Automatic annotation (TrEMBL), chains A, B:
Residues 4-64 form the HTH tetR-type domain. Transmembrane segments: none annotated. Keywords: DNA-binding. The keyword DNA-binding applies. It comes from Flavobacterium capsici. This is TetR/AcrR family transcriptional regulator.
Amino acid sequence: MKVNDRKTEIINCAAKLFKEKGYSAVTMRDIAQAMNIKAASLYNHIKSKQEILVLIVIDIAEEFTAVMNDIVSSETSTIQKIEKVIQLHIDITLRNPEALACLNNDWMHLTDEELVYFIKMREEYEQNFREIILKGIENNEIKNLNSEVIIFSMLSTLRTLYLWYGKKKGLTETSLRNHMSEALLRGIV
Amino acid sequence: MKVNDRKTEIINCAAKLFKEKGYSAVTMRDIAQAMNIKAASLYNHIKSKQEILVLIVIDIAEEFTAVMNDIVSSETSTIQKIEKVIQLHIDITLRNPEALACLNNDWMHLTDEELVYFIKMREEYEQNFREIILKGIENNEIKNLNSEVIIFSMLSTLRTLYLWYGKKKGLTETSLRNHMSEALLRGIV
């Protein structure tokens, strides 16, 4: 097995443990045990639990940031931009729910420059979304509602999708994508 | 000061500490210190941290349950029922954001019959909401979208309102009530 594959395996295993027990309660020993390897062998790949957290959280935050930057600067309508934001959250939730749980629950355990970097990305993400919404209100593409209510109603739903989607067995990916987009943009009435 | 007032004070103080530090990290000693009383005096009012958690979480869950039961059995349209559910969440969020944070973050620290009772109330609440939505779809009062997508999109937004509402200084209560109801029911387009 390649070193990078092993590292990815460790990260995935740790993300699952963080979700089950909470970041603070998990030790490097727990991770080694769950992977059925010696602690010394774990330390060949990863320096600390903190390093794993950085790899999980920063990696996902950078992906959100990069795609949001593309969306904001794209030459499309406001509605299409919002639809792309919705699909971005669904994409990442379907691909990596454990990492999203880790991002949501444990980002505050980041330290120093990583914490600053994460908060900066999160604020810029919200600011980019805000600009899309404000421009849409200005253009009469979307309703003249309080922009913070729009932003945080949508983000609350999208950011917590990982909590419930996995439990709804009858719900297909296509239904999720189409119906969530419809409900968030055009409502349920 | 009356005994009951003192108890309420203890509960409010504990809820704030749980929010700041996390339930697991808070001790009875911390609560006594924050209230500037002796630990022995605290124990005159409250047996344990667990008792405080029960008082906070079960109290709010019972309020949600009681109002939801009234809404479900009321003789009004589906839209009016959903509007009442939205206003219920906003009411409790505005009145007691710390207790809602405690309910959301710490309910899993309940034990034994209290945990069972809480989970039962939560499931019945979601089931009541589901019945409102399914009846509305059947009556063509609301769109034929996947009911789980509707339920959990709305509940995710309503249940996490306490996280961001307090930070938005320009947002009035009236705007929050009207605009959130409009966005969730009729969308933003």
